[in-house]
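During the no-cost extension, the postdoctoral fellow (Dr. R.K.) reprocessed legacy sequence entries with the updated structure-token encoder. One reprocessed record is reproduced below for audit purposes.
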Amino acid sequence: MKTPIGLIDYGMGNLQSVANSCEYLGRQVRLIRKRADFDGLSHVILPGVGAFRQGMDRLRENQLDLAIKETVGEGKVNLLGICLGMQLLADTGTEGYKGEAWEGPGLGFIPGRIERFKDIALRIPHVGWNEVRVKKSSPLIAGKQPADYYFVHSYFFKTASGEDVLAECDYGVSFACVVGRDNVFGVQFHPEKSHQAGLRLLNNFFGVPCLKNA
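Re-encoded structure tokens follow.
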């Protein structure tokens, strides 16, 4: 029997859409609301829609930030961040409540900073389908490429190192839309809304071996 996929429930995302995609791919889903819920899992998804500061505050409410750092940092589970979930992987975020000026720490798995699109002649937020350009080989984005994915965001991940950028997208500027380091991955788009390309990416993630078993 396949191990369930963990889905972190911190009140910041459409859990049902992600859960439906996982179940379509034949995987049971376990909602994670406390440290003990990570036990026995190998692959965990951090979804998210909303502001960086609110996301980190919600994770801290039940000490889920500490649980994620422990289990992922020790290589016990693989982590995939989606949209806001990807941004929370960074060192620093700059999106506060209701557009307030703010800066604060994220989970710190992938060095970099989350910044708002600016000085581009395109509508913000970036909403819709865009082609993703692979930059670095990874089991996460193996398969038919290039492909279009569905985006909804106003901020993007400015990584400290190009080595952590697995794929890019163009929207006025070129930005990292898939990042990865060791057992941590993030995608700025919504694979659960990206039809076959998104399902393929999720299925690829489920097949990435854990560091502790590698």
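Residues 115 and 187 are 15 Å apart (CA to CA). The longest helix spans residues 195-206. The remaining legacy entries will be reprocessed before the final report is submitted.
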